[in-house]
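The records we work with from here on pair a chain with its fold. A complete example follows; check for yourself that the lines match position by position.
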Amino acid sequence: MAIKLISDKHKLYIQEGALNRSMLRKAIERAIDRKTKRDFYIYSPPGLGKTYTCDTVFAEKGIEAVELKGNSSLFAFVVDLAGIMRYRNPKEHIYLFIDDCDNLLLNIDSVNTLKIGLDENKILYNKQLAAQYNQLEEQQKEDLDHYRKAGRNGIEIPIDNLTIIWCSNYRLKDASAKAKSDNAVVKNINEQALRRRLNARDYDVSGDTLWGWIADCVLNETPPSMQSANTQQLEQIVVWMYDNWDRLKEHNISFAEKLYEEMQLEPADYLTAWEFDYLINV
């Protein structure tokens, strides 16, 4: 079977993907350089290198960001935030990188809490703490107690002198969003309000542009697990993905890495393995 490599048509899509990836990097650089007072919210489909790009830019600029995983409840986020802010140097600017913050945006209360927090420069958590509080470690309890207000159930954590970069696989609603229930309407309104308070950057790529994004990363940056691949192997992987796009089980950079792993494990028969293991049967 002849190996198909990059064509002029493919190059156009790769150029478009490269442009989108460069805009993502510039958005992260702007956030880190603090050229705007608003925090950045960066959305793209999963598996396109948001986290890797943020980590790379931080390293290049010699900044040690505080990283939180956002795949937790609002309460868990508040507990982590209390621990970070309590022991910081108030005169030192902090970069907080919240990765995979999708779960923080699942309900109206969480979105509204974050929206108010950006308005008032402090996170207010005013719910009863008893049940959740009792499950915490002693150090976590002390951190929360540090931010309790006398006579009140909740806590209040200042977020001044802080730059937050949010990375998410969830696109905040904008004015074009449609809702099918009253709750969805309220949540959409709050998400739109949160979006206005952030520098929201949407990289809502799909189809040929999404393929070009992945191909640009694989060909021109090369993920660590693919460093030993030669140019012909890399081109074959991304062209095979293009030719089978509608049948691929995944559309992300990790999928290309899986194909290369299979290429190494089955050097004489990897095309058969790709066909049977990585495509949806139709």
Q: What stands out?
A: The beta strands are 40-43, 66-69, 94-99, 122-125, 155-158, 162-168, 199-202.
